[in-house]
Design a protein that fits this description.
The chain is 38% helix and 20% strand. It is of the alpha/beta class and 299 residues long. The chain folds into two domains: 57-98 and 108-136, no CATH class; 143-282, Cupredoxins -  blue copper proteins (Immunoglobulin-like), CATH 2.60.40. Helix 2 (57-91) packs antiparallel against helix 3. The radius of gyration is 30 Å and the shape is elongated.
């Protein structure tokens, strides 16, 4: 009996120690996750379902519109239609209903299946119009970047001189045969665009005149804008989390359509200033000297 009591105490002691260790491990993992969550990788993941993690006000509103409004409505409609099908199959088959009704019109039913869909569309339209208005209404921007889709299936990023830039660079897909560990296949580029966190960025999107229409898309930002030759379209975003966010051209723009990714790195304001200073030197454009003809050579 004493041995059994001691054994029970030992088991309870081991369980308490294991529980304490598990709690410490859980808290440590939670802290590590909280630290890691400060930096987001806005790329698709294996077996991912649903929309990507939103990091801008527009993206959050889009996710809410999809998850809290559209999904419940379409779920209820699908279940309702399924219930009607089950009722029709079970109650109005030839065996259960050998003498079918010859009713051809029902005033209440006609009114119901006209009014109810209209009400559903109104419920969808109100937040939809509000979302469109928020997307298209350009707020006061902290900075402006011009993005040009090229006929060579690359993106050209131009940072204006009056905002500390004065340079541009092209972003091309990395060589997939020599892709470094940690780089994402068909997504990472040689030159990432960089913007500061919590700043409203105006994007001017176009395409070169000899090119085709491209689609500039970053799902985590809720940004989707056509890059049309000869036309300057505008959109905006305000990234509220640091991280690397990926997108791709959404138009079937030619043979290398699948190899035209978009990458934006969101960093702190201090890190952005450091990058901006480095980028001004790295991507500085050297103007060719103007050559003037020597009149004496003509004599």
């Amino acid at each position: 009996m004493m041995f059994q009591m001691k054994g029970c105490k030992a088991v309870r002691g081991l369980a308490a120690v294991a529980g304490a260790n598990l709690a410490v491990a859980f808290l440590s993992a939670g802290a590590a996750f909280a630290q890691a969550a400060d930096f987001v990788i806005g790329a698709p993941r294996p077996n991912q379902m649903g929309l990507p993690y939103p990091v801008t006000p527009i993206a959050r509103e889009m996710n809410f519109f999809h998850d809290a409004i559209l999904l419940p409505i379409i779920t209820v409609i699908c279940l309702f239609v399924l219930a009607l099908l089950v009722i029709v199959v079970s109650k109005f088959n030839e065996k259960a209903n050998p003498k079918p009704s010859r009713t051809t019109h029902h005033t209440g039913l006609e009114i119901a299946w006209t009014i109810i869909p209209v009400l559903i569309l109104v419920v969808i339209a109100v937040p939809s119009f509000r979302l469109l208005n928020n997307q298209l209404t350009m707020p006061n921007a902290d900075m402006t970047i011009k993005v040009t889709g090229n006929s060579s299936w690359a993106w050209t990023w131009t940072y204006p001189k009056d905002e500390g830039g004065g340079f541009e660079f092209q972003a091309r897909l990395l060589d997939q045969d020599t892709l470094a560990p940690g780089k994402l296949k068909l997504l990472d580029v040689d030159n990432e665009a960089v913007v500061p966190v919590n700043k409203t960025v105006r994007l001017q999107v176009t395409a070169d005149v000899v090119g085709v229409i491209h689609g500039f898309v970053i799902p985590s930002f809720g940004v989707r804008m056509d890059a049309v030759p000869g036309r300057l379209n505008e959109t905006w975003f305000k990234a509220e989390r640091e991280g690397v966010y990926y997108g791709q051209c959404s138009k079937i723009c030619g043979k290398d359509h699948a190899y035209m990714p978009v990458v934006i790195r969101v960093v702190s304001e201090e890190a952005y200033k450091v990058w901006l200073e480095k980028a001004r030197k790295e991507f500085a454009q050297v103007e060719s000297p103007v050559r003037v003809a020597d009149a004496s050579l003509a004599r």
